[in-house]
């Protein structure tokens, strides 16, 4: 079973934190246990994307360490990491004329030899992933012609065929309408693999995450279950907004109603 651990992480752009106070990370401790869906929330500019980039081996920490099943992530090869960690980002890749099926099949590359092509099993995984994200029959569509929401689902399908042990999502619902926001997060939760996701919509975070970490000015200021973390006091202190917190009438998680300034 896979566990992702981040311990005493420090990072700042180009190593000059004194010039970039808004974006530096300071003493971050975070854990994603087997099967957990962990949410990372915080205001814009709090360091969420920077932290995720450290977790998927893009930003090298200045201090602290990140381990995956007790293996130091930054002492492993990129291929080793790609075989275990899949990432869904806010930005879409340049597909250079690739079809949907070809983009999804890229998720199999870390598991193939240098001169291997796609096997019948690889192609079956691609078809299943497209079915899972609601894009069955889109195989030959040009990726570049899709809507933002469709592209996001293709990238999720690519992550699924990667067969990751850890899934990292950076604002995965940004380009999706409500139906597919709910469908995507439900599907991720059903995977029951270790998942770390930054989520902008706090009601979605409350509904789908097992635990939450709150990042503010590069520091973790709160962590726990949605009921423990999403309080009116914390939202006022961290987000600067008044909110009414009650229990969702149809489910056992908090519901947030934002209160507009008068």
What are the defining features of this structure?
30% helix; ATP-binding; 2 domains; Rossmann fold; 6-stranded mixed beta sheet; 4-stranded antiparallel beta sheet; AAA+_ATPase; nucleotide-binding; alpha/beta; ABC_transporter-like_CS; 9 helices; 262 residues; 26% strand; 12 strands
What can you see in these coordinates?
- This protein is α/β, with parallel strands linked by helices and 262 residues long.
- It has 9 helices and 12 strands.
- The longest helix is centred in the middle third of the chain and has 14 residues.
- GO terms for molecular function: ATP binding.
- InterPro entries: AAA+_ATPase, ABC_transporter-like_ATP-bd, ABC_transporter-like_CS, P-loop_NTPase.
- It comes from Pseudomonas qingdaonensis.
Summarize the helices and strands and which ones pair or pack.
Elements: E1 4-11, E2 25-32, E3 37-41, H1 48-55, E4 63-68, E5 71-72, H2 78-82, E6 85-88, H3 100-105, H4 120-132, H5 148-161, E7 166-170, H6 178-191, E8 194-198, H7 202-208, E9 211-216, E10 219-224, H8 226-229, H9 232-239, E11 242-247, E12 254-259
Parallel strand pairs: 3-8, 3-9, 6-7, 7-8
Antiparallel strand pairs: 1-2, 1-4, 4-5, 9-10, 11-12
Helix pairs in contact: 4-5
Compact overview of the structure:
The protein is an alpha/beta fold. It is built from 9 helices and 12 strands. GO terms for molecular function: ATP binding.
């Amino acid at each position: 079973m896979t566990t992702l651990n981040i311990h005493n992480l420090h990072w700042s752009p180009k190593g000059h934190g004194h010039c970039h106070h808004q974006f530096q990370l300071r003493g971050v401790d975070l854990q994603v246990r087997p099967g957990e869906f962990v949410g990372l929330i915080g205001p814009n500019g709090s360091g969420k994307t920077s932290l995720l980039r450290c977790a998927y081996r893009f930003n090298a920490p200045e201090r602290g360490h990140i381990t995956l099943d007790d293996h130091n992530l930054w002492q492993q090869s990129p291929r080793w990491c790609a075989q275990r960690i899949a990432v869904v980002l806010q930005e879409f890749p340049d597909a250079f004329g690739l079809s949907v099926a070809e983009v999804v099949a890229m998720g199999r590359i870390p598991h193939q030899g240098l001169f291997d092509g796609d096997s019948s099993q690889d192609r079956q995984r691609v078809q299943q992933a497209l079915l899972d994200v609601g894009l069955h029959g889109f195989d030959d569509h040009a990726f570049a012609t899709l809507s933002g929401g469709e592209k996001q689902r293709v990238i999720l399908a690519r992550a699924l065929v990667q067969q990751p042990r850890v899934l990292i999502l950076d604002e995965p619902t940004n380009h999706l309408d409500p139906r597919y926001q709910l469908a995507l997060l439900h599907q991720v939760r059903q995977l029951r693999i270790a998942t770390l996701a930054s989520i902008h919509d706090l009601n979605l975070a409350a509904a789908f995450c097992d635990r939450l970490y709150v990042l503010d000015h590069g520091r973790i200021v709160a962590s726990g279950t949605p009921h423990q973390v999403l309080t009116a006091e914390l939202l006022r202190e961290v987000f600067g907004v008044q909110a009414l917190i009650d229990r969702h009438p149809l489910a056992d998680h908090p519901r947030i109603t934002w209160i507009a300034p008068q």
